[in-house]
Design brief:
Elements: H1 5-21, H2 26-43, H3 47-57, H4 59-72, H5 93-119, H6 122-133, H7 143-169, H8 177-198, H9 218-229
Length: about 230
């Protein structure tokens, strides 16, 4: 059974916005991870390796988000009681709860995005985005031009990723980590500028999608209802 590209994109948009906009609710987060488990079983558990690779790359970002909430959220201190002043160095219980929740929400959204990127090819993603934005064309929004830019951005991200992997594999491992990071960043920037000046022009086509089966409308509707009920 093949899921239509529009079904995938709509379901992911509803999934990510529901998690991001819902208040602090670990039951909602648990439902999100159950949906992810169902999606990965449907698409193939082989996509999990790519998801784990992407999550590892952003582990410090997730940690920084969590730590920001730890100390920026008012509440009762971790080792204090109700009514006591919270020392500046002590995280709050509500901050720890909010920080862990927000970091896990970002992990869930990234896993959902990885599932969509692994299940659909680039042409299907661009065609689905163009179809979704078509109603905005009545208001003058250039939906086809926007879709072409999305396609070019995805191409550029793939090229930059290959350049970064090459530079990381050939970095001077004996240097200080900060020096390694600076040198790799400078080389990647130089390679990207050189690549942008020498890359050939190519045509980008937006292929029309087949109509989405009626029964597949039930998948994004079910996602919306699930997060609404919980």
């Amino acid at each position: 059974m093949r899921i239509h590209p529009l079904t995938c994109i709509l379901s992911f948009l509803l999934f990510s916005t529901s998690l991001a906009l819902n208040p602090l609710s670990f039951s909602t987060l648990g439902a999100g991870f159950l949906l992810l488990a169902f999606g990965y079983l449907l698409a193939g558990v082989g996509h999990l390796s790519a998801a784990w690779h992407r999550i590892r790359r952003l582990r410090w970002f997730f940690l920084s988000i969590a730590l920001f909430y730890f100390w920026a959220t008012p509440g009762i201190g971790l080792f204090s009681v109700q009514g006591e002043d919270v020392p500046w160095w002590m995280p709050t219980l509500s901050g720890i709860q909010a920080g862990c929740y927000r970091a896990l929400v970002l992990v869930a959204i990234m896993m959902g995005a990885n599932l969509v990127l692994g299940y659909l090819d680039r042409g299907q993603i661009v065609s689905a985005i163009s179809r979704l934005l078509r109603p905005l064309g009545w208001l003058g929004f250039p939906h086809e031009r926007f879709s072409v830019r999305v396609s070019l951005t995805l191409d550029a991200l793939t090229s930059v990723q290959l350049l970064a992997d090459h530079e990381l594999a050939n970095r001077d491992r004996g240097a200080h980590p900060l020096m390694q990071m600076g040198r790799v960043s400078a080389r990647v920037f130089h390679d990207v500028m050189l690549h942008s000046n020498t890359a050939p022009c190519r045509a980008v086509e937006i292929h029309p999608l087949a109509p989405m089966p009626v029964w597949q409308w039930g998948l994004p509707i079910a996602v919306a209802i699930l997060f609404r009920v919980i």
